[in-house]
Design goal:
Keywords: Acetylation, Fatty acid metabolism, Isomerase, Lipid metabolism, Peroxisome
Organism: Penicillium arizonense
Largest sheet: 6 strands, mixed
Structural class: alpha/beta
Family: Belongs to the enoyl-CoA hydratase/isomerase family.
Pfam family, one: ECH_1
InterPro entries: ClpP/crotonase-like_dom_sf, Ech1-like, Enoyl-CoA_hydra/iso, Enoyl-CoA_hydra_C
CATH architecture of the largest domain: Alpha-Beta Complex
Radius of gyration: 20 Å
Number of helices: 11
């Protein structure tokens, strides 16, 4: 098992949930608000989990009762990348900002790019960057106390880390997305469920995390060849035409169908027993 030691994240591998990793944002004294070291750590963690053969699915949650994450640590950002002080001319400052934003985007995309399915358990304040991060996961569940908002217009910028690109594809409702993005208004768990942003709502943080583990454990029992292929093809097909998706699937499965997992799954079904699969 690879080592996962990070200042602002706790990574666990619960013995009662085989092949499931638990990644917890761990800055509860600041409502899990993100500073630069955190998004860099996030990418490192999910890049490692992506290739860790002992992991088949991942649960992502936030420590503390108050927030999954309140978003970007605005105070730290105002002293860093959002600082108005500069000795560079506008074109050079723009080049630096573009590189910085691209790096930040890639750190969040690391969650989507991770080969293993990610189930996020949201609760409490889930603002700004929380939406960026949640839309990069595969399945979203939340507690009934969750307060969501695309907050970026309230701090004078357009959301630039993924929400405006991914959220419309998650909910399939551009009118609703434009409303919440342009107004920065809060919306709750029931509205998130109604528009399809989350899959289910639970009573509290503990129940939400338990439900996320139940789902992640079910995924982890399946063939990792099948599961990782399914995530890859779904993400590819979301951004391409049906014909492109079919072509990509045929190329992908021309290799993947040669796995022994197919016969193991079929025989287990016939013999009414639970199949086991090798690490990938």
């Amino acid at each position: 098992m690879a080592e996962y030691n990070f200042e602002y994240f706790t990574v666990r591998f619960p013995i009662d949930h085989q092949y499931v990793a638990h990644v917890e944002i761990n800055r509860p004294d600041r409502l899990n608000a993100f500073v630069e070291a955190m998004w860099l750590n996030l990418a490192q963690i999910f890049n490692k989990l992506s290739s860790d053969p002992s992991v088949r699915s991942i649960v992502l949650s936030g420590a503390g009762e108050k927030a999954f994450t309140a978003g970007l640590d605005v105070k730290a950002a105002s002293e860093g990348m959002l600082s108005s002080e500069t000795k560079n001319d506008p074109a050079r400052k723009a080049a630096l900002l573009r590189r910085h934003i691209s790096e930040f985007q890639d750190c969040i995309t690391a969650v989507e790019r991770c080969e293993k399915p990610v189930v996020v358990a949201l609760h409490g304040f889930s603002l700004g960057l929380a939406i960026d991060l949640a839309t990069a996961t595969d399945v979203r569940v939340c507690a009934k106390d969750t307060r969501f908002a695309v907050k970026e217009v309230d701090i004078g910028l357009a959301a630039d880390i993924g929400t405006l690109s991914r959220l419309p594809k998650v909910v399939g409702n551009y009118g609703w997305v434009k409303e919440v993005a342009l107004t920065a208004r809060e919306f709750g768990a029931e509205e998130a469920l109604r528009v399809g942003f989350v899959n289910a709502v639970y009573d509290n943080r503990q129940a939400t995390i338990a439900a996320a583990f139940k789902m992640a454990s079910l995924i982890a029992k399946k063939s990792p060849v099948a599961v990782q292929g399914t995530k890859e093809i779904l993400n590819y097909s979301r951004d391409h035409s049906v014909q492109d998706g079919l072509r990509y699937t045929s190329v992908w499965n021309s290799a993947a169908l040669q796995t022994q997992d197919v016969s193991a799954a079929l025989l287990s079904g016939l013999k009414k027993r639970t199949p086991t699969f090798e690490k990938l």
